[in-house]
Design brief:
- The chain is α/β, with parallel strands linked by helices.
- It has 13 helices and 13 strands.
- The strands form 2 sheets. It has an 8-stranded mixed sheet, sandwiched between helices.
- Helix 9 (219-236) links the parallel strand 8 (207-211) and strand 9 (239-244).
């Protein structure tokens, strides 16, 4: 690699000036509570007129220093949401639409690809769920970490190499100097994921997206990786969007939770409130599926049916075929996400015509 770009990252004023938008209309900027603001994000796949929407008008906010968990079954659109925020979806076969995707006051939607390359890794780090796929198998660990550093920092290679050693030590990799010369296949799954995390935080990002970062790891290593992510997030004061279907992990790490089903967010609340009094039948179903530490041999409850494919969404509530509380209204109308308790950034919101009561 010949060198590192030294261009400064775009500011809210720069983006506003370059795209004809008054700076005063930009999303909350430095010093505000909101770090990441997503408004009515929709994602469709296909070509020409054969587009199929897989994420449908998703909105959420991530505060500074906060962990927001996005949960739901496989196929609900969680990973697509994360990839769309980073603009990593194939441009020819996908379409991303949103009112705004703002990071620290900068709307990411109108940025050029060159500007987004400075944002990715520089302002937002991402930890992918399969470390062997995230790492280049023919490059040493050291070269991959150094490359991530020099993309966003004007450092000489020797300086970047020293920084790489510090990063590998910070994420708990043993003998970091020796690991610089190792290839990904020479490391265990947990060690590879630590390298991926080191790359994600190489430029001290203000936000971190972790897309099911413990999926391919055994239980003991999962716990270590989760503790590491939480420690790094708290040390740096990053906002973290954690995507998972593990509600035990949610209870351990989250400040707030957004429950996603069939491309939409159906419930959002603080983690304690959500576990105490879920309002959406789908959320209650997910919580009921958590195994209890007891001697009972009672069969574990399940949610009958499966997540409907995007091609069969149609109108009405998408959970209606699996919901014991569904009515004719649920077949005809789509419930919107509305506050049912509290107000402000972390109000308890639910999209349901027949929500569960507070006593559940």
């Amino acid at each position: 690699m010949s060198g590192a770009p030294t261009d400064a990252l775009p500011t809210a004023a720069d983006v506003a000036k370059g795209h004809g938008q008054p700076a005063s209309e930009a999303t909350e900027g430095p010093g505000s509570t909101v770090l990441l603001q997503v408004e009515e994000l929709s994602v469709a796949f296909g070509q020409g007129g054969q587009l199929v929407r897989v994420v449908d008008r998703v909105s959420f906010q991530l505060a500074r220093g906060e962990t927001l968990c996005l949960v739901g079954e496989s196929g609900c659109g969680k990973s697509v949401t994360a990839l769309s925020l980073m603009r990593l979806l194939p441009e020819r076969r996908s379409r991303i639409e949103a009112r705004r995707i703002a990071l620290d006051g900068v709307d990411l939607l109108p940025l050029s690809e060159r500007e987004m390359c400075r944002v990715r890794g520089g302002r937002i780090g991402m930890v992918f769920q399969e470390p062997m796929s995230a790492l280049n198998p023919v490059m040493t660990v050291g070269n991959q970490v150094i490359e991530a550093i020099r993309l966003h920092r004007p450092l000489r290679r020797s300086e970047a190499s020293q920084r790489a050693v510090e990063l590998l030590r910070r994420v708990g990799l043993p003998s970091p100097e020796a690991q610089l010369r190792a290839y990904p296949h020479q490391l265990s799954g947990g060690m590879r994921q630590r390298v991926v995390i080191a790359i994600a935080i190489a430029a001290d990002p203000i936000a971190l997206i972790a897309d099911e970062p413990t999926t391919a790891l055994d239980v003991t290593i999962q716990a270590q990786i989760v503790r590491l992510l939480v420690e790094l997030q708290r040390e740096a004061g990053m906002g973290m969007l954690l995507i998972t279907h593990d509600l035990g992990l949610v209870a351990e790490t989250a400040d707030c939770v957004a429950v996603m089903y069939a491309g939409r967010i159906v419930e959002e609340a603080g983690v304690a409130e959500l576990f105490r009094a879920p309002r959406h039948p789908y959320t209650q179903g997910l919580l009921d599926c958590i195994p209890a530490l007891s001697t009972s041999k009672k069969r574990l409850p399940t949610i009958e049916g499966r997540v409907p494919p995007p091609t069969s969404w149609g109108g009405g509530c998408r959970f209606r075929e699996r919901c014991p509380r569904a009515s004719s209204r649920c077949r005809d109308e789509m419930p919107e996400l509305e506050a049912c308790d509290g107000d402000g950034l972390r109000a308890h919101r639910v999209a349901c015509f027949h929500p569960l009561s507070d006593e559940v």
